[in-house]
Fold each of these.
Amino acid sequence: MADCIFCMISQGKVPCHKVYEDEKCFAFLDIAPVSRGHVLVIPKEHAAKMHELSDESCPALMLAVKKVSKAVQEAFSCDFNILNNNGKMAGQAVHHVHFHVIPRRGIKEEFSFNWVPRKQQGDDDAEEILERIKERIIGSANKQ
Ligand code: AMP
Ligand code: ZN
């Protein structure tokens, strides 16, 4: 997509600190890292959100996330978060699918992605929720 910053990065039109590249994916350092070694992993295919990505790019992307995560973990002997935001309400600022790999080395690298407030019990209408989601799942073995 012509005016997408991440498409331009993966096509070499905008400079970045490249970490990894294969036929379908690309990874580079985040320009405003949450912690040292914060990497973004993207598909070369343009898709704004995860559910819009093709079935070909999706497994390739997961494999690239795994490879980058392994390298980051070994480089820094750290724990790490993998985050993926979809849509403005979920905090997505760049509308090209990307996974954040964020090293975590302790209290000094806390960041405010906190799951608060959170219910102490399941939703009251869990059965209805279940039905709404399950009937839209494609190819599930446990669909009844
Ligand atoms: P999100 O909020 O999940 O959409 O995250 C977008 C991320 O892209 C942020 O962490 C930004 O710092 C990062 N970012 C935006 N522009 C660039 C760029 N040109 N190079 C590297 N990272 C970028
Ligand atoms: Zn794009």
Amino acid sequence: MKHLFQKGGNPDNPTLLLLHGTGGTEQDLLPLARIIDDSANVLSVRGNVLENGMPRFFRRLAEGVFDEKDLVERTAELNKFLDEAAEQYEFNRKRIIAVGYSNGANIAASLLFHHEDSLLGASLHHPMVPRRGIVLPDLSNRHVFIAAGLNDPLCSPEESEELNTMLVQAGADVTLHWENRGHQLSGAEVDAARVWYGALYK
Ligand code: MLT
């Protein structure tokens, strides 16, 4: 997968996996990584799917309606890429924390839903429920931060609550952070993610 990697202060430091929103690139979330942990390794990946020229991490049939087969395949592809990247760049595969926005948050949530050991934690900015009707793996010892907008037209507060509940029922420790805004990624929620991360991983 197209990506960039930046080495952190120490090879055993956590690795932030950056996953952009629809139409983004691997450059988009680099400023967030610096705010959240400037000594972490950074692996920033570009989605392999194009929708009218816009990179994404999996196909959708309509806005908010996911192509489930593609979602499952692309999630496995990303998980395998993480294995390969950890070997190539010699970072600790067990210490990956995803930071995803919108479509990138959705595939990060899908990693947690489908691959038990894919992520140590995740900061999900404006995620949706990636899939329903499956049994989630045991997510105890996984920490998840969800930033949601009270007026998000793509992801309703009910859907954010639903995702929270699904993750908690699977054993994850979840912090649900609300912004009185829409789907945009705000400075305040990045700051809250930094505080959440700092208490757990620094
Ligand atoms: C998705 O397709 O993943 C969501 O609708 C968010 C987005 O617009 O990318």
Amino acid sequence: MIAGISKITFPMIQEPRGNLSFIENSTHIPYDIKRVYYLYDVPAGSARGGHAHHELKQTLIALSGSFEVHLDNGTAQETVTLNRPYEGLLVDTLVWRTIDNFSSGSVCLVLASDIYREEEYIRDYCKFLATVKA
Ligand code: TYD
């Protein structure tokens, strides 16, 4: 994987009556989770993201269905398909991400290291490249 991203496999308790996965703050996530948000009812053909963060770290999980995460750390690019509820994609600071190809009914859960602060977003790709190279 390119620098700035990694995969996390969460525990899965498999039983005939169904599967159960769990995520513990300090055990499975390398930062304190301060916010949880989720993307759902994403229309076919829609794209989310299109930004990077100065300070925020996030873990993306396909709780249901599948989608593609396109990642760019300023020097290398990679596309990761998420489709397993027991897998997380950890995205560090200064990684540009776009999410698309949402399957019908998919849910993208995001575990974030801080509350929402628009001022720490980088929404301009040229500014992102300049920040990474600085
Ligand atoms: P944005 O982060 O651009 O969404 P995405 O990256 O998923 O495409 O946020 C979309 C809008 O929602 C924007 O107006 C900011 C707002 N927002 C909040 O108010 N709180 C949040 O926790 C998040 C993630 C977004």
Amino acid sequence: MHTVKTQPFFDQNPGTSGLRKKTKIFEKKNYAENFIQSIFDCAGPIRGKVLILGGDGRYLNKKIIQKVLKLAAGNGFSKVIVGKDGLLSTPAVSNLIRKHKAMGGIILSASHNPGGHDGDFGIKYNVENGGPAPDNLMRAIYDRSKKISRYFLAKEEDVSLVTLGIQIIAAMQVEIIDSVRDYADLMEELFDFTAIRHAIGRGFRFRFDAMHGVTGPYAHEIFERRLGFPSGTVVNGIPLADFGGKNPDPNLVYAKERYDMLDKGLDFAAASDGDGDRNLLIGKGIFVNPSDSLAILAANARLVKGYFSGIIGVARSMPTSTAVNYVADKHKFRVYETPTGWKFFSNLLDAGLVNLCGEESFGTSSSHIREKDGLWAILMWLNILAVTNKSVSDLVRLHWYTYGRNYYSRHDYEGVEEEVAERMINNLRMRLTDLRKTRIGNFLVKKADDFIYHDQIDNSVSVYQGIRILFQGARMIFRISGTGTEGATVRVYLEQYEADSAQHDKDTQTALSPLIRLSDEISGLKLSLKRSRPTVIT
Ligand code: VG1
Ligand code: CO
């Protein structure tokens, strides 16, 4: 064991989902070591404990895995369980933490951000319930990183990540496991694979795009080997260090080829992001908005084996559309509104108050783990499509017919100067009192505030979670992203409810255009950001 002297870095402030920076920053001497040691210093007594370790395969993944292993041995873990080749998806890590009653898990990923030497890298820490470290722990880790002066290291050879089984470094066991098996087994427990096989027999055609992220091996095993979809169903299935030079971000911009592919006779197409926690769903001629997906899953959960007993409650991040609230009104369950980021769902899930959670940012999952789960969401849809024998489009339209349609869109302004973004949000914040009860065009402001979340389980309070302006049947929300690595990203979320089914066939941007104009009028966004249009519209 060696104690290595180090100097703190002052920029290791984790955002919405772990520490995310340009890859080159993580290559600085001691940068990764400092942050990992800061996690170990804050995460609780380590001696004799188990740690789960894996990443999404991006550039630096294997190198940092070796560093974590030596630091883990230096800090007294009894065992680290690592996915073969250093690969584990975020949901798989969450599952393994729970299964092995581990102290926690380290996930090396910057999720949907681009990879490679010129891309991004990230480190996430998940705690013993399998969920992302809560805010107070992340703050403690950040504080620690600003004071750190040493880390503990076992000076050992690199571990082979290829051979399954146990190796020993210092006094610590390193077990290399099959990255896929436990996760695939869990999916098989939750879903009716036989029903899906019958749908395949009826000619149901599906395609999954792994975007060269971590889900390739999982998808090959689950969709092609266990379910029997023809080989070739999974595309871009080999994890690559730079994701093939593309953004592993499953939205309509970066996964557009999938959407176009639907013309080629597919019934359903889906994609997941770099670390496997997001999902994109596309049916013939229809993109399923993630907020709608949450509502549709809530309305149909009882049709699925693992969820026969129904929905206990649903949690959604505040910017996620209120579509699921209309389902809740009818089916009598409660909807909890939390700040952006999966970490806020854990307490509600642990307390048994909810068993379905969702975010507008292509994240959906249930109480089976404590992370969002891309393949889970896709299998949930496959299962519902199989037992109803309806098309994606029919299911969505029927849902709108029953509950009304929540037109919804997110407009992102990327690469804005941080100060400029902060100033715009602050100006808006100062105007909130004036905005209350004012009428602007056809819109009467019902409520205007800066979202504050009181966690009813641990009584923690999270402030500044987004400016929201609520109208009758419509909302707009403004916040700054906590996952970017270059400047600031301003997100504007727009939602308009439409009960009349004769009005359900509009193009989303057209339906939202009065609200879009109003959001600019109220915030002065385009002028202050000096932008004429958003960078990305989803
Ligand atoms: C974004 C999404 C948020 C999600 C987070 C992590 O955060 O909006 O809903 O939980 O990414 O997702 P932000 O702060 O940039 O808006 V992932 O797939 O990057 O773990
Ligand atoms: Co992700």
